[in-house]
């Protein structure tokens, strides 16, 4: 059985194939062909133990556009609340003849654990502060779409790197595609050995923005935060918040990204998020084609 558990387990060729497949699906969607019959005999369960807007809706739309049968499971409205375990929950869902599971879970490694205990293809839709592979794929794909090539581009990931699965998966994906990657944030929100992943650290936001072609702005993950880690929100915004004034003072036009949800006025002001430098909604749009590609390629191995 094949899975997408993290970018860590992929190589450059895997990512190139996903991008080429996503190109095809994006072209199909752009021709207003909303649905293809490709996965009519596949059933997919989306099981979410953590809240989501973009990832959940985008997976569901991708599955429906491929004509898969879809069931949705939200832990907060389920028998998990009565104490049912993860493996029991998923095995019960699988006994209804489900072929593929898309799972979001607050525990790092939850997808890896599940893949060892159940007989289905698992797609990790975010596991705690570990990985969010489809987000990194859609982010890297969006940079490729905007700048032509990711190789050799300077990308800075700004914010709460310590608690961010988006940061880790992006670092793996961007490095595989040959980008130069820096991380920028308060020392307290940077993992200690982050340089061992081949990235550089910059704690001065202006210097980071002057260096980069693209800035991927991350949300401070208050839900994963021990309060002692954190500078106050006001201090964070003063030192690491991107404003239009700051962008206008650079001698070049950089691309602004954000995985969402945005804390408007904290890591990014509205006039930046909604400006023509921002590709935030293009990222969301590309998420559907990327997830169609991932599901299609995994399903081809099931059939
Ligand atoms: N980017 C992202 O994972 O957003 P959601 O939490 O809304 O799915």
Automatic annotation (TrEMBL):
Keywords: Pyrimidine biosynthesis, Transferase. One of its GO terms (biological process) is 'de novo' pyrimidine nucleobase biosynthetic process. InterPro entries: Asp/Orn_carbamoyltranf_P-bd, Asp/Orn_carbamoylTrfase, Asp/Orn_carbamoylTrfase_sf, Asp_carbamoyltransf, Asp_carbamoyltransf_Asp/Orn-bd. Carbamoyl phosphate binds at residues 54-55, 104, 132, 135, 260-261. Residues 3-145 form the Aspartate/ornithine carbamoyltransferase carbamoyl-P binding domain. Residues 152-297 form the Aspartate/ornithine carbamoyltransferase Asp/Orn-binding domain. One of its GO terms (molecular function) is amino acid binding. Transmembrane segments: none annotated. L-aspartate binds at residues 82, 165, 219. Pathway: Pyrimidine metabolism; UMP biosynthesis via de novo pathway; (S)-dihydroorotate from bicarbonate: step 2/3. PANTHER family: ASPARTATE CARBAMOYLTRANSFERASE, ORNITHINE CARBAMOYLTRANSFERASE, MITOCHONDRIAL. Catalyzes the condensation of carbamoyl phosphate and aspartate to form carbamoyl aspartate and inorganic phosphate, the committed step in the de novo pyrimidine nucleotide biosynthesis pathway. Heterododecamer (2C3:3R2) of six catalytic PyrB chains organized as two trimers (C3), and six regulatory PyrI chains organized as three dimers (R2). Belongs to the aspartate/ornithine carbamoyltransferase superfamily. ATCase family. This is Aspartate carbamoyltransferase. It comes from Flagellimonas eckloniae.
């Amino acid at each position: 059985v094949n899975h997408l558990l993290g970018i860590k387990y992929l190589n450059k060729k895997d990512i190139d194939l996903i991008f080429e497949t996503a190109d095809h699906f994006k072209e199909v969607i752009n021709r207003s062909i909303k649905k293809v019959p490709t996965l009519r005999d596949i059933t997919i369960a989306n099981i979410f133990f953590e809240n989501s807007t973009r990832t959940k809706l985008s997976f569901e739309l991708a599955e429906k556009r491929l004509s898969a049968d879809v069931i949705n499971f939200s832990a907060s409205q389920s028998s998990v609340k009565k104490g049912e375990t993860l493996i029991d929950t998923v095995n019960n869902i699988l006994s209804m003849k489900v072929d593929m599971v898309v799972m979001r879970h607050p525990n790092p490694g939850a997808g890896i654990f599940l893949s060892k205990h159940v007989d289905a293809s698992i797609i990790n839709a975010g596991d705690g502060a570990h990985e969010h592979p489809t987000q990194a794929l859609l982010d890297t794909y969006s940079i490729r779409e905007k700048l032509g090539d990711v190789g050799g581009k300077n990308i800075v990931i700004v914010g709460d790197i310590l608690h961010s699965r988006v940061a880790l998966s992006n670092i793996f994906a961007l490095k595989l595609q040959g980008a130069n990657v820096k991380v920028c944030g308060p020392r307290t929100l940077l993992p200690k050995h982050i340089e061992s992943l081949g990235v550089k650290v910059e704690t001065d936001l202006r210097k980071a923005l002057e260096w980069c072609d693209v800035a991927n702005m991350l949300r401070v993950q208050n839900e994963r935060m021990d309060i002692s880690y954190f500078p106050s929100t006001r201090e964070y915004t003063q030192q690491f918040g991107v404003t239009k004034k700051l962008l206008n003072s650079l001698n070049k036009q950089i691309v602004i990204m954000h995985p969402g949800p945005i804390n408007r006025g904290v890591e990014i002001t509205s006039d930046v998020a909604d400006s023509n430098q921002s590709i935030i909604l293009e990222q969301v749009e590309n998420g559907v084609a990327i997830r169609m590609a991932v599901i299609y390629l995994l399903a081809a191995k099931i059939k």
